[in-house]
Design brief:
With about 300 residues, this protein is of the alpha/beta class. It has one domain (about 1-305): Ribonuclease Z/Hydroxyacylglutathione hydrolase-like (Metallo-beta-lactamase, Chain A), CATH 3.60.15.10. About 25% of the residues lie in helices and about 25% in strands. The strands form 2 sheets. The protein has a 7-stranded mixed β-sheet. Strands 7-8-9-10-11-12-13 form a 7-stranded mixed β-sheet, with helices on one face. It is globular and about 65 Å long. The termini are close together.
């Protein structure tokens, strides 16, 4: 299994001289299996360059057959789709997998809706590739070639899925946008609206959901995890924003026996020098922890990993 990061930034693309090292494109991960199968996770702005490479290199061997997975449909995770060149070429087959919110329009309307004539010069019904949209929920399924996929609902303002991919005797887990579950009923006992039963049940639900996420990442050969904030940023002003503090992500990775951990979805305000400093700090902390061999690093655009 070979992976390449084409976009690692969160929220909005951030081009410029201060983001060159880690990259300014939003999330996109390319996965190449030993049998040649291509899987893509995320259609952020990084998918544009990936699409150009696929057309220039892979299409020399014939039409493309791609499974594209979306964690959720916030714009930073789908904005590159209209610029993904393979969708314009006849003969290519692209299966787009992802969740939708209950009551919302279907997945095709959400993703291809960006190509309304008001926003884009080419309409979705003019695309030449064979594109199939598959709505996902939490569960298990297989792709051709014996690729096992497990999906897990994460904690984000809209329905958001993590992916656990088992192939080539390796386990890759992605948790693109996620915040630890917390007790939404927690309140001061002196509050006249305090409900002891609701507080107790809320705490139980939060703990159970966090336990399930921990089990989801257990033993991963590589975990690619949202780590947009530091713990100080998260606790001071980012609760409820749907993203994780990097210190907790590292702690959970160690707890669940993750072998390699790529911290990901970098905050758009974060410059290269700041990410360098944070990575050094995190790696120094991990080095002091006994009984762990976890390799923790910050994902960079263009980075390749062989599992």
């Amino acid at each position: 299994m070979l992976l390449r990061f084409w976009g690692v930034r969160g929220s909005i693309p951030t081009p410029g001289p201060e983001t060159v090292k880690y990259g300014g494109n939003t999330t996109c991960l390319e996965i190449r299996l030993n049998n040649g199968k291509i899987i893509i996770i995320g259609a952020g702005s990084g998918i544009r360059a990936l699409g150009n490479k696929l057309v220039m290199e892979d299409m020399k061997k014939g039409p493309l057959d791609i499974d594209l997975f979306l964690s959720h449909t916030h714009w930073d995770h789908i904005m590159g789709f209209p610029f993904f060149t393979p969708i314009f070429i006849p003969g290519n087959k692209i299966r787009v997998h992802g969740p939708v919110n209950i009551g919302d329009e279907d997945l095709e309307q959400i993703v291809a809706g960006q190509m309304s004539y008001n926003y884009f010069p080419v309409k979705a019904d003019e695309l030449a590739a064979d594109i199939e949209y598959k709505v996902l929920k939490e569960g298990h399924f297989e792709l051709s070639g014996g690729v096992k996929i497990t999906t897990k609902i994460l904690n984000h303002p809209i329905i958001d899925l993590g992916y656990r991919i088992e192939a080539d005797d390796r386990v890759l887990v992605t948790v693109y946008d996620h915040e630890p579950f917390r007790n939404l009923f927690e309140s001061n006992p002196d509050d006249p609206d305090y409900d002891e039963i609701a507080v107790r049940e809320g705490q139980k639900a939060a703990e159970e959901n966090n336990r399930r996420v921990l089990e989801f990442i257990r033993g991963a050969d590589l975990l690619v995890h949202d780590a947009q904030y530091t713990n100080r940023e998260y606790t001071s002003s980012k609760l409820g924003w749907g993203h994780s503090p990097m210190e907790l992500v590292v702690k959970n990775g160690i707890l669940m026996g993750v072998k390699r951990l790529a911290l990901f979805h970098h905050d758009p305000t974060r410059k290269d020098v700041e990410l360098d400093a944070l990575e050094r700090k995190i790696r120094a902390r991990v080095k002091k922890i006994k009984k762990t061999n976890i390799d923790v690093f910050f994902a960079r655009e263009g980075m390749e990993i062989k599992l």
